[in-house]
Amino acid sequence: MHLAEILDMRNDIGGGVSIGLTRRCPLSCAHCSTRSTMESEEAPAEIFTRFVGTFRRDDRPEILALSGGEALLRPDLVQALASTARKVGTRTSVLSGLFFARADRIPPPILRAVDAVDHFSTSFDVFHEPEVPRDRLFRTLGAIMDRGVDVSLHLVGQGADDPWLGTFIGDVRRRFGDAVPMVVNALAPFGRARDWLAPLEGEGADTAAANPCAMAAWPVVGFDGTVSACGNDDVFDRRPPHLLLGHAATDGWPTIRARTERSALLRAIRLFGPRATARRLGQGCDGYCAACMALDANAATDLSALMDRPATRVLERGVQALLRGGGGEAFLRRHGIPRFAGLSQLGRPA
Ligand code: SF4
Ligand code: SF4
């Protein structure tokens, strides 16, 4: 499965679900958004196997996106979840920091996990490179491609003119041609990066202009099984009740999907964006995600009448059609570094 196929579904409400299988990671990247160490939290595997076991052929996400921390610290679990998901038609991608690239060969349990998934993504950036040398990354990526698995790179940079990004992308193209599509996101002050990186420019601007958040389309299962409306790491740390959808130990996919689709507050965030929603509720709208997390969950009932109006439903369908029509590349222009959005289409099958 090509990266572009996954990204094209990124605007679909409940089109996918992300699961953080562990917060642990053997690497120590300076910008790590999850502040991962080998002592970080890790929930029992049964929570995740139970949840994926509730996928049904007629009610399932198209994509199961596994990440961490380092998801491949639990290769047997990755293999089991991908296998369960495939039985009902859901395809699986896994994101890894490639800690095992430092070894001379890929460990057999990780190879079995690689063979079980439909897409293999590797994160890499200037902070990652001291942990995993570039030649080891390329060698391991090549070995995974040789097994017939589609791969991609998830890069982080300090903007369109980041010199590290330019050099690295050039190296990837020289080595692999068009065979490795890439997602390029902007460095953000989450996790360990918050200790040394300034807040996002414009995050504090007080504007109520509509700016829909497509990140609220796919629910995210966190390290302890808590299910959130998006993958913002601050949501898992602060747990604002209006952005929580349930728990993987007790709720099944049909319930989580229905809550994702029907919540008036989430529908407003996806349609108007958090600032405009806050303004409609008469609340402060300082920041983007900050405004979203500060929303008063009780005031959400005030949104129900507005969101249930026929005109709002029509607008919602129109905006959703526009977002879907833009596909994954347009999604990345809004949520990644726009200049590099086209790299996600490299090698896309005709
Ligand atoms: S590989 Fe990912 S999870 Fe691991 S330390 Fe680096 S950024 Fe964090
Ligand atoms: S605006 Fe809200 S739903 Fe969207 S990413 Fe930020 S916290 Fe999550």
Give structural attributes:
binds iron/sulfur cluster, iron, metal ion binding, nine-stranded mixed β-sheet, TIM Barrel, alpha/beta, 9 strands, iron-sulfur, 350 residues
Structure write-up:
The chain has helices at 3-8, 45-52, 75-87, 108-116, 134-145, 163-176, 233-238, 253-262, 264-271, 274-280, 289-293, 300-307, 310-335; strands at 16-20, 63-67, 91-96, 119-125, 150-157, 182-186, 220-221, 226-228, 244-247. It has 350 residues and is of the alpha/beta class. It folds into two domains: 3-200 and 327-345, Aldolase class I (TIM Barrel, Alpha-Beta Barrel), CATH 3.20.20.70; 264-321, no CATH class. The chain has a nine-stranded mixed β-sheet with strand order 6-5-4-3-2-1-7-8-9. β5 (150-157), α6 and β6 (182-186) form a beta-alpha-beta unit. α2 (45-52) runs parallel beside α3 (75-87), α3 (75-87) runs parallel beside α4 (108-116) and α9 (264-271) packs across α10. The protein is globular, with a radius of gyration of 20 Å. The mean pLDDT is 93. It binds iron/sulfur cluster (2 copies). One iron/sulfur cluster binds at residues 25, 27-29, 32, 34, 36, 68-70, 97, 123, 128.
